[in-house]
Amino acid sequence: MNRFLGFVCLFVCLCCAAVEAKQPPNIVMIFCDDLTNQALSCYGHPLKLLETPNIDRLAQEGMLFRRCMVPNSICGPSRAAILTGKYGHVNGFCCNGDEFDGSQPTFSKMLQTAGYQTAMIGKWHLKSEPTGFDYWHVLPGQGSYYNPRMINNGELVQHEGYVTDIVSDLSIDWLKDVDRSKPFLLMSQHKAPHREWSPALRHLGWNGDRVFPEPETLFDDYSGRGRAEHEQDMTLEKTFRPLDAKLEPPRTISDAQKKDWDAYYGPLNDEFRKQNLTGKDLVKWRYQRYMHDYLGCVKAVDEAVGKLLDYLDSAGLSENTMVLFSSDQGFYLGEHGWFDKRWIYEESLTTPCIVRWPGVTQPGTTSDAIVSILDFPETFLESAGQSIPSDMHGKSLAPLLAGQRPSDWRKSFYYHYYEFPGAHSVRKHYGVVTDRYKLFHFYEPDMDYWTLIDREQDAQELKNVYDQPEHAKAQKELHAELDKLRKELKVPAVDPPRRGRKKNQKSQQKS
Asked: Which range marks the domain in which residue 388 is found?
């Protein structure tokens, strides 16, 4: 009996040692710019704009979050929020054109300290040089779709080809050289599908002249809402540039590439000029061109996701690698006549979020919980067995990924947009979001009013019901919740100064 107990104890000790010796999961974050849920077939958009089989595969093998929110729907602030796990008023990056303070704590530095190999490849867009990464190979500023220049650990290099393919290939090349005895963090960050939406040459004409169905609100007149919605500058009608419409070529395209570009766009542009379209007919034409180009960019992203997943499989890395796919915010695909982002409205507030974590997450699951890109660093740290700093603003997604929603999971979310004056003239606003409602405040002296949206009765968010008697109880509760969140987050009464505003005003107009 004693011998049997001895064998049992030995077996238990060996098992415990094996568990302790198991390497923490590798982490791959695939991140896009301006990618919206409507463009991904796994999100089941009713217009069925595009098939994305590789991103769908990730959803089939992991968990798809239906309501992942951003704290500020614009590129740079979202990236800073992910690195720090904090809102912009704390991490110092509230507007594009600010400079990220790389000396502050970031989750990548914490993983480095824990023994992770770390790499940042692709779009950075935080102005300062990356810190917390053993290797970085990033686009300066917005970067270019064709033949991009990149900065390789401080050295400017010239690439030839299409930016999505280049970021994908550089990511896989780095993975080939990792030390397999140590865990790794790879942040593979695409420019696509950011404006001006230039597809890979192989995807020109990909839709076979399909006429895309138009959103119901393509010709929204903004009745039922306030001045801010009327006075924005992000419509297909008024704000679409010749480069957006491909009436002129991107500046970095080579002569050889331009031949293929001209072969597709040239005849279409000649026909367009003959038609001399105006009014709604012009908007309809721009919408079709926009859909071809934007979705063509997404096709290359989907291919890049497939290549990366295939490499993880072939290298035997998939089983111990968490893969998170997301974007810095959502985007408008003609809804309300818009492109771009910035608003607390749903298309720009929410962003794709799909996580595959073998052994933890049940394949093919979905979550309707209110989550945020602010939750990503906490999730990565917990998966690596590291403590989560108490001053981070997010919550680890680990319990949700394991199929459990904690009883104290958030039921509301705070949003704050700062960048006015700026590109597209969306006014400053902050607010609170719940499963059903949005209460938000345009808070500048010349534009000071409240909006209440009831998504249960108004899914397209077309009507401000603030101060209507039937919503009085909800309005009172939302005001109290908003006050509570602002107090908890220590949001200052006066906005933080815009760092580098004058120097970067021109670049902001291009964002």
From this structure: 24-200+285-509
